Amino acid sequence: MATSTTTYDWRLALPLGGFLAVFFVAPLAVLFALSLQVDPKGTAYGVSQYTAFLGDAFSLGVLGTTLLLGLEVTALCLVLGFPVAHLYTRAGPRMRSLIMLIVLLPLLTSVVVRTFAWIVILGRQGIVNSTLLSLGLIATPLKLLYTQGGLVVALAQVQMPLMVLPLATAIGRIDPNLADASASLGSGRWRTFVKVTLPLALPGIIAGSMLTYAAAITAFITQSLVGGGQMLFMPMYLYQQASTLQNWPFAAAISIIFLVAVLAVVTVFNMLGRLSRGLTEA
Amino acid sequence: MDFDRRQLLKTALALGAMQAFPGLSFAQARPLVFATFTGSWEEAHKAVLVPAFKKMAGDAQIVLDPMLSVDQIAKVNAAKANPPIDVMLHDPGPALVAIGQDLVEPYPVDKSAYYKDLISEAQVATGPAPFFQVVGLTYNPEAVKTPPTSWADLWNPEYKGRVGITNMNSTLGTGFMVEIAKMHGGSEANIDPAFAAIEKLKPNLAAVAANPGALATLFQQGQIDISPGNFNAIQILKAKGVPVEFVAPKEGAIAFKTTIHIVKNSPNKELAFKLIEAALSPEVQAKLMDAPYLIVPTNTKVKMGGEIAKVLAKDTDELKKKFVFQDWKKINENRSAWIEKFNRDIKI
């Protein structure tokens, strides 16, 4: 394996380091300090905001449903995105640019517009319901908007590019000869997929999953417009405490807990990736 | 003229710094900053209030900075000594928070030419109310054939799966819950009857919208046919051709004072006073009452007309009879606990 021996002067990293310190580390430190205030007036310091959150089944439930929502969206994006990415790497140049255009198109539209489009699609008189009604498959409109299922579908569409792009890159790097080699050694398509393609695409799957996951659980606009006011997820909970109730310490504690929870999930993603790679190599 | 590279760079940097830190360059004379609300409020204020102010204040510079009340409080709170805003606009709940946190200057009532002409409810020394917001019932006349007359109509089994409400984050949502509580023997201090009533409303509920704006969208989509709603918001929808009507329920329409405040430590107190005077003046209020703004006037010298006279009240006396004002001081004491309870209990 070739190793690069070029060394760079560490001082080159100073501007970025300084930028991150001022605009990332310092605000985070302020946020953490704020979360240690016992009440909004800052009369005393302690961990009461954290114990209030962690000792409350309702708050933990909000955290749980938010993390679960992320998993559902990520799984749906993976299941729908993998074939698209696979098709992209196998297609001709013309088809390729068409697929890329379709994948990228949503990124060029505002998330607000896309979310409103989903309200139109999922509504009582929306495209889905009116089609089903006219086909005579249902008698009364289905409730699609303001349901967890509707939200997962809308979020999956909104975040799909984040899954497909890293996947397409990873799958594109796999040497097509490997699949032929696998076939010539007697593997069927399915076995080749599980034993060869999937492990080699793993970096893309992990990168895509992390991006989709992080984007899905923090998608304030889509969550509140498609999910509605009766489904509470962490971003809305946070907003409610910070803005409506002006309870900044609790809001800060929610942010820190959310941040830690997301980092934990991302770490698990990474570990799973490493673990499964280890298994396939063994 | 001959350009020196160094000189050019220096100028560019200075200009850039002025952009990044406007406080530096305008420390002495920054324009008056008026934090209005977003949407139709901003439009109305840009079209009517700003020109009237400029006429009064000798063409002084003014900047509109539209944002929610709660965000205005957060912004001023973050820089109390040198606030980035001079004039704030607040619904009753946030207004009390701002006053409680000592963020507003008392209004110089003695100097004011219009204060004494305001209806008594609008005369607030911490910041007068130049506008009212009115909440009543809104419905789709194509789907709801007999116009509703009471909040109780929302419970009508006929509207199964057709009713929309908002959660308690908004003034509208909280005000509605307080009114429902009052109907069932509760009060601003006791909202439990409203929660019991909402429990019974569940079969009818099609949606709990995250905010009043989302409620309007649901009318457009035919997702809901009847809901509590804001008079102004409904007029905007109507103007867009959405079939929707507003009606003041017989229990009384809920009226929210929208108060306007001079921010404490503002470097532009004199201009701020002039802007508020303009907002209280009968000329501005009369213009804001007309279509398309349809803002309910608080100055008794303004004669009610148009849609407001037709749907709400033909004069101040009738207005006072038909409007219900709520005690937001009491409401604020418990509001966070209620929002928590709503979070927990209302799942449909």
Automatic annotation (TrEMBL), chain A:
All residue ranges annotated as the ABC transmembrane type-1 domain in the record: 63-269
Any Gene Ontology biological process: transmembrane transport
This protein's name: ABC transporter permease
GO cellular component labels: plasma membrane
Upper taxonomic lineage: Bacteria, Pseudomonadati, Pseudomonadota, Alphaproteobacteria, Hyphomicrobiales
Membrane-protein topology: Multi-pass membrane protein
Main location: membrane
UniProt xrefs under Pfam families: BPD_transp_1
Automatic annotation (TrEMBL), chain B:
Keyword Cell membrane in annotation: no
Gene3D superfamilies, per database record: Periplasmic binding protein-like II
Tree of life domain: Bacteria
An example Gene Ontology CC term for this record: outer membrane-bounded periplasmic space
GO terms, molecular function: polyamine binding; thiamine binding; thiamine pyrophosphate binding
GO BP terms in the entry: polyamine transport; thiamine transport
Entries under PANTHER family matching the protein: ABC TRANSPORTER SUBSTRATE-BINDING PROTEIN, THIAMINE-BINDING PERIPLASMIC PROTEIN-RELATED
Protein's recorded name: ABC transporter substrate-binding protein
Organism of origin: Methyloraptor flagellatus
